[in-house]
Design brief:
Elements (H helix, E strand, L loop, with lengths): L1 H25 L14 H5 L4 H15 L1
């Protein structure tokens, strides 16, 4: 009985990973402005998508050099 529950949980987790991965890979990141207002920590934290947030953070770090 316990192994059946484990298999069901593993299948559900796998389906969730496939769905999330497909959603992330199929969308195009939005471009955000690189200026004083857009490079504040609050502005970067307000970006929902983790990929867009990483891109924005990288661009702001390059801008400060």
């Amino acid at each position: 009985m316990q192994t059946k529950v484990n298999w069901v949980l593993m299948v559900c987790a796998g389906a969730a990973l496939v769905f999330t991965g497909y959603k992330e890979f199929s969308r195009k990141p939005e471009l955000h402005a690189v200026n004083e207002a857009a490079c504040t920590p609050q502005a970067i934290k307000s970006i929902d998508n983790i990929t867009e947030r990483a891109i924005q953070s990288s661009k702001c770090a390059q801008r400060d050099k």
